[in-house]
C-alpha cells in the first residue's frame, strides 16, 4: 500500500545548520497494517509522515502509494488516499462551522470540485450514528459550532471526519499529545476501532509507550533518520511494555 525506497531528506543543505533528517529509509507497509512509530525527539518521525503525505517532497528516493509512483505529487493530489490527524485539535476542524457542516466538508474532501453534498435526512442520520459511537453525546449537538467544543471532543470528531470520504490511509501524528488522559484514551480507542471497521492502513506516531504497546500490529523505532527496529505480527504481540522502555534506556 505504501512503499518507500531509499528516502533521504536533508534540510539546510550545505549550511551550518544542515540536518540529515532521513538517511536511507526503506519501508513497505501492507494494506490494513497499523504501524506505530516511536523514536526520540528529532529522529525523523514527522518528516517521514510528511514524505508520505507529500507536504515535503524527498531529496532522494521513490514513494509509491497504492501501486502508483507519487514521488513528485504534492499533498493535495495525494489526499484521495490519505487523511491526517495532527497533535493540535484545532487543525482538523473549522471553528466557526457547526459539527454537521464540518462533516459535510469532510465528505466532500476528495470529491471533484463543484460537487455538492446537501444536508438531507439520510446524511444527518449517517453523521449522528457515526458520532454516537464516541459516547460523548455529541450527536445531539450537530448544530453547535465546532469552536465551542473541548480539544478532546474536536480530536475525536476529526478522526470520525477522516473516514467520511473513503480515505484508505490514516496518519496519526501524536493525536493525543494535547489531551487529558481520559480524552486521549477515547481518541485512541476510537482510532483503533475505525482502523478495524474501515480496514484502513494506518500509521501512528506517539511518545506514549503504553499506546505503542497496546495499539497496532507493527512497531518501528527510529533514531537519527533511520529505522533501527521493525517488529510485526506475533513478534509485536509478544513484546512486553518493559521491552519498549528498555529501547529508550
Ligand atoms: N522544515 C525543516 N527545516 C529544517 N529542519 C527541519 C525541518 N523539519 C524538521 N527538521 C529537523 O529534522 C530533524 C527531524 O525532525 P522531525 O520533526 O522529523 O523529528 P521527530 O522525530 O518527528 O521529532 P519530535 O518527536 O520532536 O516531533 C530534526 O532535527 C528537525 O529539527
TrEMBL record:
Q: Which residues form the ABC transporter domain?
A: 2-249
Signal sequence span is none
Q: Does the keyword Nucleotide-binding apply?
A: yes
Which Gene Ontology cellular component terms are annotated?
Answer: plasma membrane
**Which InterPro entries does this chain map to?**
AAA+_ATPase, ABC_transporter-like_ATP-bd, ABC_transporter-like_CS, ABC_transpr_LolD-like, P-loop_NTPase
Q: Identify the domain of life.
A: Bacteria
One Pfam family from the record: ABC_tran
Q: Could you cite one Gene Ontology molecular function of this protein?
A: transmembrane transporter activity
Question: Keywords of this protein's UniProt record, alphabetized?
Answer: ATP-binding, Nucleotide-binding
Q: By what name is this protein known?
A: ABC transporter related protein
Organism for this UniProt entry: Mucilaginibacter paludis DSM 18603
